[in-house]
Design goal:
single chain, 315 residues, alpha/beta, 7-stranded mixed β-sheet, globular, binds zinc ion
Length: 315
């Protein structure tokens, strides 16, 4: 275990926690349910413990198709083409949602921007955009091919004279961050007074998470070190002076989660033609229920959609 470290709760520093679930690495299934997800005794946040030390975490991304290199391929398959169309649709929806809450079209920073497809959408509507991206290839592609202003690295690598922004977005990034407490302090410094923080994270209280348990694709251990639900996220952000202004869902993520979770189950336990049909039908049913759970979440105190999409205002 020398490349692993034990940690207190990444959100509230509490030392006490209890085992929540044991999970596999979908790229190294031979090790079985090797990883421990624990739940904080205080804020109820769920996190990976022990976790790979951060300096060693890069190797767990080697097999993962994390870099959005779909943008760099000359010839796209039909699935890729559908993905690209859905991405355009998704980015347009994200922009429309943000513009409902942002008082003016001004400056936006996307943390973990990949090749910058979302920023392109914002730029097309006259926003001044900037991105931060750890993957040097994705960042270079965004700069060279999409003509965007992107810093390779993290918030620490922003130019010293970087001006504050009115909106910060993090689409499926916070679950990878080792120290959300440090990150939120840095975000506060870069965000203007009354600025908006838009966060999208997998929702571990979602219907699909509860159904698939250790085979829920979005646990994605050990790459995801944090697993948020609305209550833990809200407690954490309110402590750091952010007020919730909107909670929503990305309904297409429900389909992604169920299809990928069924695929993971097939890979782990094997399948037959009949088994395939069963997994396909189950994916359709669970996908439908998951989307419904997300749609009706606004009526519930707890959010049940596959993705927790929240907007916060700095107070
Ligand atoms: Zn905690």
């Amino acid at each position: 275990m020398k490349n692993f470290e034990f940690t207190n709760c990444p959100l509230c520093d509490c030392e006490q926690s209890g085992l929540y679930l044991k999970t596999p690495d979908r790229f190294d299934l031979g090790i079985g349910d090797f990883y421990n997800l624990v739940q904080c005794s205080d804020c109820k946040h769920i996190y990976l413990n022990p976790r790979p030390v951060e300096s060693q975490s890069g190797k767990y991304y080697e097999n993962a198709a994390y870099s959005p290199h779909i943008s760099t391929q000359a010839k796209l398959s039909i699935t890729d083409k559908i993905y690209v169309k859905l991405r355009i649709f998704n980015n347009r929806n994200k922009r429309t949602m943000i513009e409902k809450f942002a008082t003016e079209r001004n400056r936006i920073l996307d943390i973990g921007c990949g090749t910058g497809e979302f920023l392109r959408e914002m730029q097309s509507a006259d926003w001044q955009v900037h991105g931060v991206e750890r993957d040097p290839d994705a960042a270079a592609f965004g700069r060279d091919q999409n003509n965007l202003s992107i810093t390779t690295g993290t918030l620490d690598d922003l130019p010293t004279d970087f001006e504050t922004v009115n909106v910060i977005t993090m689409w499926h990034v916070m679950e990878h961050i080792y120290s959300p407490q440090d990150e939120i302090k840095k975000i506060s410094r870069v965000l203007s007074a009354d600025g908006l923080l838009v966060l999208a994270v997998p929702n571990c209280a979602s219907f699909d998470a509860k159904f698939y348990k250790q085979n829920w694709i979005a646990y994605d251990t050990p790459r995801h070190v944090n697993h948020f639900h609305l209550k833990s996220l809200q407690k954490f952000l309110e402590l750091h002076n952010f007020q919730l202004v909107k909670k929503s869902n990305l309904f297409l993520d429900s389909l992604f989660n169920v299809v990928m979770s069924e695929q993971l189950i097939e890979t782990r336990y094997g399948t037959s033609v009949v088994g395939r049909l069963f997994h396909f039908l189950r994916a359709a049913i669970i996908g439908f229920v998951s989307i419904m759970a997300g749609l009706f979440s606004p009526l519930l105190e707890q959010s049940r959609g596959a993705t927790l999409l929240t907007i916060w205002r700095k107070t």
